Fold this sequence. Notes:
The chain is α+β, with helices and mostly antiparallel strands. It has helices at residues 17-40, 60-160, 162-177, 182-193, 211-220, 230-234; strands spanning 198-199, 208-209, 238-240, 250-255, 258-267, 270-276, 280-285, 293-296.
Amino acid sequence: MSHTAHIPSHRKPRRSASKLALRAGVAGGVLGTIAVAGAAGPANAEPVTETIEMPTLGSLETGSGLASAVAASAEASQQEALDQSLQTQENLALQKAAKEAKKARAEADRKAAAEKAEKARLKAEAEAKAEQERKEAQERASRTSERTQLTSTSASGNSSDSGSSSGSSAGSNESRTQAPSGSAAAIVAFARAQVGDSYVTGGTGPNSWDCSGLVQAAYREAGIDLPRISYEQSSMGTSVSLDNLQPGDILYWGSRSGSYHVAIYVGGGNYVGAQNSSTGVVERSLDWDMPSGAVRLL
């Protein structure tokens, strides 16, 4: 065959420069290793008479598969990081929702407790008012009974001695028109100055009173210290007849040692007293609610 005849090429398609360089480097390394081994062999070694086919690198597809694996790993890592971020955000949202729910529950409990306390307060006030009205009704009934008994006793006395009754009436009229003076004037002036103030159980002024609180404060104006309770006040001093009253005398309702109401006689047949929560401090005629008796401390 002519040396110029066309000989079919058995070479594979041309590879890229980088991959060829890689293969050349590996091949060079292998050949170098063989050369060193040959040089180190015995001097009488026989020459190489056959060509040894060197192993080749794997196909280029191996490098492509590795890159794909690296890319897939990176994508998986990114996805894992994204999933962790989403989980963290979800946990934070759940924690925030739980805190808000707890806060709302606490606020609802606080409001419920406040409403319950307010209802209890209103109920207690209503019960206290009802109890006060009941006591006032009992006091009025008792005063009416005492007044009836006193009227009966007076009528009996008048029937037995008309002359004595006439004298008593004259004395009573005189005492009712007598003007207060000295300490009595100070007591009367203070009592009348409180007319119109409200009645409050246990009140001692300056704008609200109960019956014994007003009497105690009025006598303090005259330099006299009285006990706080009505039955203790009516137990002091000297007992006087209702027909011989003088301004400043203490009037009481009930028994002297067990009175349930007191007031101050101010002259002219009138008295000033802290009656009840409906009327407050008033000036009234003895005939409006006749007292059971009177005591004098001046």
